[in-house]
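Appendix B, example 12.
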Amino acid sequence: MACRECAEKALTAVPQQNHADFVRGLLYATAAAVAGLILYAAFEIATGIIIGYLSLAVGWMVGKAMMKGSNGHGGRRYQITAALLTYAAVSMAAIPIWIHYASSHRQHSSQQQQLAEEQREFEQESGRRSDAPAPARPSSPSGKALLTLAFLGLASPFLELSSPVHGLIGLFILSIGIRIAWQTTGQKLPALDGPFESPPRPPAAITAG
C-alpha cells in the first residue's frame, strides 16, 4: 500500500542487475549442477536403484545457488541458464553410471584373461604351445569418442524412451525439476498497491447561531 511518490521511490531503490552478478550466479549454479550430477550418479551406483525424484533436488540446488551467487537477482537469462544446467546435470549423470558398469564388465573380462594367461604360461612351461592370441591392450578414448559419449549423455533422458513407461515418467519428473529451477530464479520485484484516491470529505455541518 503506497502512494505514487512512495511507489516510485521503491522501484528506483531496487538494485539494478549487472554482468558481474550474472557471472557469479553462473559459477555458483555450475558448481551446484556438478554436485547434483555427482549426487545423482553416486546414489544409483551405490544402491543400483534408478530414482528420478533426485531431479527435483538438482533443480532446487541449481536455482538456489544461482540466486545466492547473483545476490538475489533473477530474470529470464537466469531462468534459462538454470533450466539448461539442471537438464545437463541430470542427463550427464548417465555417463559415470555407464562408465561404472563398463568398468565392472571390463574387470570381469580381465580376470578371465588373467586366468587364460596363467593357463598359457603353464602350458609353455610344460613344453606345449598355445595358439591363443595375446590379449589386446585397451586403447585410450579419442576426442571423437568423448564427444559421442557426451552427446549420448545429453540424449539419455530420451534414450530411456526405449522403455516407454519408465522413460515418460523420468522425463515428467525431470520437467518438474527444471520448472523448480525456473521458478526459483524468476525476477523478484516489490509488490506495490496504489496509489489510491482519498475518500471525499463529508460536508461541514451548518450550525444555527
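The CA atoms of residues 49 and 120 lie 40 Å apart. The helical segments are 4-12, 19-47, 54-69, 76-92, 94-125, 143-154, 156-159, 164-184.
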